[in-house]
Amino acid sequence: MFDEPVIEISTKEVTAITPDTSVAKAIGIMEKNKFHNLVVLDSKEIYLVNIQDLIIAPSAESYVDGVMFKPHCIDKDTPTIDAICELIDSGQRAAPVVTDNDKLVAIVTYYDIMKRGAESLILKDTEVTRVMTRKPVCVETADSIGKARSIMKKNNIGRVLVVDAKDKLKGIVTGGDILKKIYKPKRKMTVGELKGENVPRMEQPVSLIMSAPVITADTDANLAEMANLMQEHDIRGVPIVKDEVPRGIVTILDIMKYLRELKEKAMINVEIQGALDEEYKELADRIIETDVRKIAKIANRVHWIKIVIKKERDRGGGSYYKIGVHVKTPDKLYVGQSEPGGTKTMIAKRGAGEVEKREGKRRWDFVDVLKDALLSVEGQIEEDKKRKQIRNRKYY
To answer: How far apart are CA 15 and CA 33, in angstroms?
Structure first.
């Protein structure tokens, strides 16, 4: 999962400026290239500036050294999933990518990660309803820009959706829109736009600065599609709609945090109880590692896994194995038991239990018994996941 070195997905042609570059020139470079962040090189030191800081700089003729900052840098060989975690922890939307001796070789941004995410099988298998923020914050078209800004500050969000009186989506306003169009507009919003009324800028209707039409997605879309929309249209959030009414919103940060959760969930405590012949040990480790990853992916969250191995002998003196797999998730304890006589599937469901026995071909091979037990649990979790998805579709 996003195991390749971060250098492989990063932007290698880095545009850099010097500390004595004017704010106006830096903004021009960023707008021309659709950059949100720009590298500043001062001798061997690496800095960053972002478009928001440049826009609110005191003077367009001042130098960028007044707003640049020392960023967190990421080593070029860092696995992409770890780079995602480092970006989240640093609070940056981009990071210089460096060698062991701190030489700049690339820059990785949110959009580089979304471009990679658009090809991810993991994200293709994840519906937007899994991570979207439900009941997104909205304002009406006639509400003031000041109200929209206050709502964003109060809720610590970067955008609000704009709807009409019937709750149908009409536009979207971001903090960047307010900065660019209100604080440092290229064209002043004149009183003539409001039929001659002398209305302060922050009291003017949000419809004047909203972006429309809005790039949206349906409730049955997946996260890979969201990542593709974000990097293709240079946006950081996609409203999720049904019948033109907003049902949720997914942001780049939502997707990155979801990937981080998957990494943390992959670090599952697996306890193995019982003796195992040395000849089976290496093969058993490989099977368990592969299937534990499958179980973690299907279940989304796993507290722990316990595998109990019992070696027994039949009447003829031959040995065989009985294996039980116990998987604890936030909702259930799943138990799959396998032995040469067949597979038992046991479901412990918060006090209520049900036992199902599937008779099969009598097999004495350890590998087959182990796989049967693991596949039994995978099947149970998969069935529960499908039932949950059907319930969610009915809800929407």
So the answer is: 9
In a domain? residue 119 = no
Q: What is the CATH number of the domain that holds 235?
A: 3.10.580.10
Q: What is the mean pLDDT of residues 373-386?
A: 90
pLDDT tens readout for residues 90-122: 999 999 999 999 999 999 999 999 999 999 988
| pTM for this entry | 0.67
**Burial grade of 352 (CB within 10 A; 0-12, 13-18, 19 or more):** exposed
Q: What is the DSSP letter of 35?
A: -
Cα 178 to Cα 77, 94, 290: the distances in Å are 38, 22, 49
Domain that holds residue 317: 268-395
Position 116 in a domain? no
**What residues have CB less than 8 Å from 378, skipping those under 6 apart?**
291, 294, 295, 298
Same domain flag for 237 and 345: no
Tell me the Ramachandran region of residue 395: left when phi exceeds 0, alpha when psi lies from -120 to 50, beta otherwise.
alpha
Which residue carries 């003196």 as its tokens?
A: 317
**What's the CA angle centered on 209, arms 195 and 55, to 5 degrees?**
120
Burial 361-373 (b: 16+ CB within 10 A, else e): eebeebeebbebb
In a shared domain, residues 78 and 139: no
